[in-house]
Amino acid sequence: MPQQDLLRAxxxxxxxxxxxxxxADEQRLDIAERCVEANVDGVRGDLVWLRAASAHAAxxxxxxxxxxxxxxxxxxxxxxxxxxxxxxxxxxxxxTPPPPxxxxxxxxxxxxxxxxxxxxxxxxMQATGTKRSVHAKPADDKATASRLGLIASQGKQxxxxxxxxxxxxxxxNWFTSLVAGAIANQDGKPELRFRRQRGGDPTMxxxxxxxxxxxxQGQSQSQAxxxxxxxxxxxxxxxxxxxxxxxxxxxxxxxxxxxxxxxxMAPLLNSIGAGGGTPLKQALQQAQAFGQRLLRRNPSTxxxxxxxxxxxxxxxxxxxxxxxxxxxxxxxxxxVKRGRGQHIANLLGAxxxxxxxxxxxx
Length: 362
Prior knowledge:
The chain is 33% helix and 17% strand. The chain is of the alpha/beta class. The protein has 3 domains: 2-78, Orthogonal Bundle (Helicase, Ruva Protein, domain 3), CATH 1.10.8; 125-151 and 201-360, Rossmann fold; 165-196, no CATH class. Strands 7-6-5-9-10-11 form a 6-stranded mixed sheet, sandwiched between helices. Helix 10 links the parallel strand 10 and strand 11 (351-354). Helix 1 crosses helix 3 (44-59) and helix 3 packs across helix 4 (67-78). The radius of gyration is 42 Å and the shape is elongated. It starts with a helix and ends with a strand. 30% of the residues are buried.
């Protein structure tokens, strides 16, 4: 096949002379101008065009590139690189008449609107006061304290200070019991040591904090926040869960979702403002529904409810009962007005304490 042999020899010769092909500056400029006219991005098209033209010239036995070489490979280079030139923006039509003038609508007056917010104030902040822990009233009333879970027990073997009884399982820790075998209790019997229960205490503290405008008087809101901070610290040490609901500004908000009590509650409490009315009934209804759902999922959960309010509410709460045990802390500082908080506690079947009866942490 002499034709194939001739083509093979032609390609071999072109490969040997490819590096010696020369190109004039006019051809380089021509390639660049054509790429600009085709809106080619970058310089890759220019380089490929130059190499293709050099190969075409070498294949035909020429030592330099001419216009025929450039034309022969143009479509191979620009076919997939050519882009349509952008269209110039359409000038705005200055002959279009402006829209007709329309008189702005006046806002409805308070007498015309059904609900007026005249005199409504923005929520005001009070910093968290001194941390307080809750204890029963009077100080020697251990039954009330035990029922509310307000005094941390020492565990089954009375050597785990600060831990709740539920943190000790029924499984005996034989190693520590044998090591401490020389120690006997008052009955002369060796003292058994138990293993710690895995997981946290199944106690959940549900705190309802009054954030209405009336709690701003006499720094009551600040002291109430200090009480919540103390409760959170107690629950955190005992590895217990906590939920914080705020009721004020005529709405109920979940300020801290269900989870282990936080180590530091003050930053969250400092961001809570107080104002508006006292939707105590709505808060109790939400807490009631929440507690019922929680007990359906985990019947072993022990719920302790704290209602921290000044009792300044005129809503009817008859028939409401919160699952678990409840304590109402009255933040009302005027002694003659504290009867309302006591009345609410009686309706809920809750224990009652005044804010001043909460023992301050040392």
